[in-house]
Amino acid sequence: MRETLAGVEFIILNADDYLADFSTRFEHLEQDLWKLERQQEFREPGYPSWDAFAAGRTEESLSLAEEERSGIAEFQRGLSVRGIMLHRARLVASPPTPYLWWESHILRIREEAGELIRAVDVEAIASLEAGDWTLPEVVTLGMTVMYLVQYDSDGALSGAHRYEQADLVETWVRFIRQLFDRGEPFGDYYRREIKDVVP
Q1: From CA 25, how far away is CA 101, in angstroms rounded?
Q2: Which of 38, 80, 136, 164 has the maximum number of C-beta atoms within 10 A of its C-beta?
Q3: What per-residue confidence (pLDDT) applies to 54?
Q4: For the domain 2-43+85-194, what is the CATH superfamily, name and number?
Q5: Long-range contacts (CB closer than 8 Å, 24 or more residues apart) made by 146-155
Q6: Read out DSSP for 70-119?
Q7: Of 148, 182, 149, 153, nearest to 165 (Cα)?
Q8: Averaged over 174-179, what is the pLDDT?
Q9: pLDDT at 166
Q10: Which ranges carry the DUF6879 domain (predicted)?
């Protein structure tokens, strides 16, 4: 997949511009969204559940996550009315990192609310990664816009590269769909690898 990006023009967005650009385009989205998550460690400062977890307050973190359930469900209902589905292929390594353990609780809630999420073993993409190159974090909006989301060395959001070449976007949507189809329902992964594990 690396070769599909070689020499292709893109727009560089900082974190604020990325979030604003994504929000504006998402409001007018009429097709499905596909997301590929590769990294096993991130930071989400400013997100109450994450902040509590990062501070070692695990039970509080999980309680805060549960408090978001109704809002997540309302968001998914709104998408259903618009005829839009969110698909996420979440690559997972074993054993799960602390971040993945925490995020899995959020993703379980999202899946139960209607988001389509599959856990995909990182071994599925081992042959695609070489040297210091790993698959990027990808978000597609329909078949016309794709973001390669960028993070700093600490795993915090730093911006994105925006691509608008339809053939490139379609190629990556097909690839993410293939990974998604090889994965397992996230709830199954959660119950087997996360539910009874202490981080």
Answers
A1: 31
A2: 136
A3: 97
A4: Endonuclease Chain A (3.30.870.10)
A5: 146/172, 147/13, 147/18, 147/22, 148/5, 148/10, 149/18, 151/39, 151/42, 154/43, 155/39, 155/41, 155/42, 155/43, 155/99
A6: HHHHHHHHHHHHHT--EEEEEEE-SSPPHHHHHHHHHHHHHHHHT-EEEE
A7: 148
A8: 98
A9: 97
A10: 20-190
The single-letter code of the amino acid at 81 is V
DSSP conformational letter for 33: E
Which residues 6+ apart lie within 8 Å of 195 measured at CB?
none
Question: How far is Cα 88 from Cα 78, in angstroms, rounded to an integer?
Answer: 18
For residue 164, what are its two tokens?
A: 């608008």
- Tell me the residue type at 49: S
Q: Cα(25)–Cα(157) distance, rounded to whole angstroms? A: 19
86-92 vs 116-121, strand pairing mode: parallel
Query: Taking Cα atoms as reference points, which of 149, 178, 170 lies closest to residue 32?
Result: 170
